[in-house]
Amino acid sequence: MNIFVCVKQVPDTETKITPTSDGSFIETASIKWIMNPYDEFAVEQALLIKQANPAANVSVVRVGSVKDTEALRTAMAMGADDAFLVEAADNLDSYSIAKALKGAIEKSGKKPDLVLAGKQAIDDDALQVPQILAEMMNLPSVSVIVGFELNGTTVKAKREVEGGALEVYEVATPCVFATNKGLNTPRYASLPGIMKAKKKPMVQLSLADVGVSDADRRVKYSQFRLPPEKPAGKKFDATDAAKQKEIVAQVVGLLRTEAKII
Amino acid sequence: MDFSLSSEQREIQDLAYKFAKNEMIPVAHEYDEQGKFPTEIFKKAWELGLLNTCIPAEYGGSGFSAVDGVLICEALAYGCMGMNSSFMANDLALLPIVIGGNDAQKKKFLTPFTEEFKIASFCLTEPGNGSDAGGIKTTIKDGGDHWIINGEKMWITNAGYANLFVVYGTIDVNLKHKGISAIVVDPKSPGIEVGKKEDKMGHRASDTRGVRFNNVKVAKENMLGKPGEGWAIAMATLDHSRPLVASSALGGSQHALDLSIKYSKERNQFGVAIAKHQAVQFMIAEMGMKVACARLLVHKAAWMCDQGERNTEIASYAKAFASDSCMQITTDAVQIYGGYGYSREYPVEKLMRDAKLLQIYEGTSQIQRLVMARELLK
């Protein structure tokens, strides 16, 4: 059985994000990269399947810069068998990424039985790649799953919907799942795991290798900038009973004209 | 010259810091307050391969360098200096076997620590002998086909939980240093009495007890090296263990520095964050400088171990500087937190209590200076 896990490398949650001076992207030089936390649930699920089916092969796939390969190395240190890295700029859009992932999976020469990915990446929060990928691969998919059970060639997947109710799906493999928090508890990469990961194969591909070109880009970023700083709050002194009516009218007026929330 | 860590070392460090932040810091306060031994966390750290870093690969260890060892130790001490004392005590106890043991002893005593979660104690200090370790009174007498141990040990880390003791005694008190011998002892041996848990100022999660040996019989083959070689083994052990203890002081210091930076940006006085006041900035600058210096010394002392160079002088600088700095840094962290720093609801008073022990155990700051002077003036 071949399991593919798509992972993204994102800035550590404690990183202070600054846009580049020309606003074309964010400064990446001093960023500490980590595996997207939602992808950790996907890796863990793949490893749980492998534990129950020792013959299963777990491949991790990533599209992004090759300068730092933290996310793939971590996944292999956790127990994944091999990795595929498609070299690309870190600001690719969801469509190009999905197409590159599909291309890399095809290039691996292994027929996928399961494709897993985090439901969203915590950097751009687009929540699109797993679904686009499933469409491109012409496979069924369930997103935001919190339960996963594999029985032969059928997966019973659970997803949370509004109001705390659960939807239960039965899907025939091959299929794609986007994982959510609560699915499992990702393991740590152990130290022996880190040592072993060094000897595991990491195949590097270019965007051209996987059939992606600039023409595939659907979204172009026009500018990156920090949100404007919040202006200081205003205080109204309403202790004088005689003036209260007037002050209330003033506050209501400002909420209408300035804050525009009523 | 290259100050950078390898990518593998960065991964090791990341894992250890992740473990410290996720598994240790959230519960450190509770374990400290209740003086609870961290068995579960200890075991989890072992499962991830974070413990017993001194065991060579040929005996089942991960084959870590001394530099790898101090990176891990720093991170775990960042999580909790008290818990880390217990973790580190395993290495302290196993190092004499790594250094002075023969092949059969290493297989017999080290390998089980790689196969199963086990705890060890290093039994050197006695009620009447701390800094003057050469004045050991515990005796190891020849009983024909076995050794017989009599005496009392004090401040033994992990004593209540240990699966293995390494005990220092003398074959003849009159021989002074030349009589000192190191021997591996099963803590369940008849005649061993483990005392009550000491109620300490800091490192309260760590288990510390007295141990009494009453005619304890130990197999002949458990002696490390020849009788009388214990002092040399103990000294060589210290060259390896001082960088470790120094790195745990470094971890505590880094934690105090990080907390101070964070708090000083949050706390406002006179209309601005206290980080804007030069009085606070100077304290933080001083902390940063000491952390950076301690880290250089720790890494160099460990690196010298890996190069097979004698590191006695640098290791003493590292141990004394890192632990004295840790005391100063944690004291200043309490100062920056002000009244809140003195409260047990905030994390810095624990760091200050924990820091104090680092100036005392594994050679006091004063003994380190004696060692430095001896090296410089010889």
Largest interface: A-B, 11 and 14 residues
Order of helices and strands of chain B: HHHHHHEEEEEEEEHEEHHHH
The counted number of beta strands of chain A is 11
* CATH superfamily placement of the largest domain in chain B: Butyryl-CoA Dehydrogenase, subunit A, domain 3
What is the average of the pLDDT values of chain B?
A: 96
What does this structure look like?
The complex is a heterodimer of chains A (262) and B (378). By secondary structure, chain A is of the alpha/beta class. Chain A folds into two domains: 2-216, HUPs (Rossmann fold), CATH 3.40.50.620; 231-262, no CATH class. Helix content of chain A is 26%, strand content 25%. Chain A is built from six helices and eleven strands. Chain A has helices at residues 37-52, 70-78, 94-107, 129-137, 191-197, 244-257; strands at 2-6, 9-11, 33-35, 57-64, 82-87, 114-118, 141-151, 154-160, 166-172, 175-179, 202-206. In chain A, strands 9-8-7-10-6-1-4-5-11 form a nine-stranded mixed β-sheet, sandwiched between helices. In chain A, strands 2-3 form a two-stranded antiparallel sheet. The relative contact order of chain A is 0.17. The mean pLDDT of chain A is 93. Chain B is 53% helix and 14% strand. In chain B, the strands form three sheets. Chain B has a four-stranded mixed β-sheet with strand order 1-4-5-8. In chain B, α7 packs antiparallel against α10 (348-358). Chain A binds chain B through residues 73-74, 77, 188-192, 194-195, 198, and chain B through 7-8, 11-12, 15, 18-19, 47-50, 62-64.
